[in-house]
Amino acid sequence: MESVEPQSLKKLSFKSLKRALDLFSPIHGLSTPSDPSSKQIRISYKLNAEYGSVKNLNSVPVQNQGQNGEKTKGDKVPTSTALVLSGNHDGRTLHHDGNQNAIIPGPNLLPKAPDTDVHTTGMAGAVVSISGSSERYSSTSALMERIPSKWPRPAWHPPWKNYRVISGHLGWVRSIAFDPGNSWFCTGSADRTIKIWDIASGRLKLTLTGHIEQIRGLAVSKRHTYLFSAGDDKQVKCWDLEQNKVIRSYHGHLSGVYCLALHPTIDILLTGGRDSVCRVWDIRTKAMVCALSGHDNTVCSVFSRPMDPQVVTGSHDSTIKFWDLVAGKTMLTITHHKKSVRALALHPKEQTFASGSADNIKKFSLPKGEFLHNMLSQQKSIINSMAVNEDGILATAGDNGSLWFWDWKSGHCFQQAQAVVQPGSLDSEACIYALSYDISGSRLVTCEADKTIKMWKEDETATPQTHPINFRPPKEFRRY
């Protein structure tokens, strides 16, 4: 038997293309002959679809011109066969009825059509072809009922402005936490110190030292006079604010600790770090209750709730996990994100939370973790931190210094601000590492890479007229 030489993919593609050309080139450019009956059916369907609501109106008295140019009153044109076109002039609507042409004053319902579509013949009015016009004006959206969008319209929020810049740290400011009494807040920095600031005046009240690496997580207890801190030195510390010193240390993490949260009802502490484990600690005994293991990369965000799921974590492995605290196992894994989930924000009133990643900001429901929607624009930056207050304003901080404000209900971004580095700092230090609202939700504090702390509040002089809402729902929810 003769051996068949294998042909290359390029040669086979050319042979297939030549075969197709040989088959279809003789009939290329030949149009299908028109079918008058199908054209008539198509025209009648369009007439019923577009003008069905105005076909059965009562007869309208009109003024026609006789053959001698005299106006005759009382003649009626049945509107059941009238064709309403958008090619009107001076607020008049053109009706076509058999062999007569009538000009009837009427509302300008449709946008003005090109002049080529309406031909005037002297004083006899306008002559319009039914077959041509029905195809030309098939999309008359003005006559159709406007259906309101199903997407919720955002509530108006005044823009936020920076009213205070606090300096004092000697390194990047990486973390922040507020006092439950809303009288002070604390910040952790890469200079290995924790500083406590007065909210009203912005003055430094106290500096705590004890960590040997940058401090990435802070939390203030609502039940005790305790402050908890975690850092890259693998240490988790408990500070007694009555004595201003460390009273407990929680040992167990194998690498840097990136996030920290307190349970709202139980005396336990949650920490997550580079060892891909979220560890649960008993505050009093310093013992590790359990280790929530299941992530494949750094656990960089965590929050807790009084009910299931009691623990929610986000990781660099681009997943969000819900944890059963009693069993110490995963309840649910959310895989909607494509990149690291560095920030989570739990709504203070609703059973919803948002997650921030470099690909998008997404909103989920609790307790089942159902996906609700994406935010309606993309920040195009690594989201380091995010927070939401009771008024439904979500603030997100980007790695490029962008600070965006969103309406929680609709996902509409109503303000985009940019961090301005302090004199003497590099432009690359325009980065926001952490942010948080105070207890009242009326002030926002951002921690930045230029070693400063910025405080924001709403602009009291803004009104809906000076700052209107520029909102467009997603394409799939628009109705024209």
Automatic annotation (TrEMBL):
Xref: InterPro entries: Beta-prop_NOL10_N (IPR056551), Prp46/PLRG1-like (IPR045241), WD40/YVTN_repeat-like_dom_sf (IPR015943), WD40_PAC1 (IPR020472), WD40_repeat_CS (IPR019775), WD40_repeat_dom_sf (IPR036322), WD40_rpt (IPR001680)
**Annotated region Disordered: where?**
58-78
The terms describing its cellular component in GO are:
catalytic step 2 spliceosome; precatalytic spliceosome; Prp19 complex
Per the database record, which ranges form the Nucleolar protein 10-like N-terminal domain?
339-428
Look up the coiled coil feature and give its residue ranges: none
User: Which biological process, per GO, is one annotated for this protein?
Assistant: mRNA splicing, via spliceosome
- WD repeats mapped onto the chain: 166-207, 208-249, 250-291, 292-333
What UniProt keywords are attached to this protein's entry?
Repeat, WD repeat
Q: Does the keyword Nucleus apply?
A: no
Q: Which SMART domains match?
A: WD40 (SM00320)
Query: Which residue windows does the record flag with biased composition (Polar residues)?
Result: 58-69
Task: List the Gene3D superfamilies hit by this protein, alphabetically.
Answer: YVTN repeat-like/Quinoprotein amine dehydrogenase
Taken from the record, one Pfam family name reads WD40
In the record, the note on similarity to other proteins reads: Belongs to the WD repeat PRL1/PRL2 family.
According to UniProt, the name of this protein is Nucleolar protein 10-like N-terminal domain-containing protein
Q: Which organism is it from?
A: Vanilla planifolia
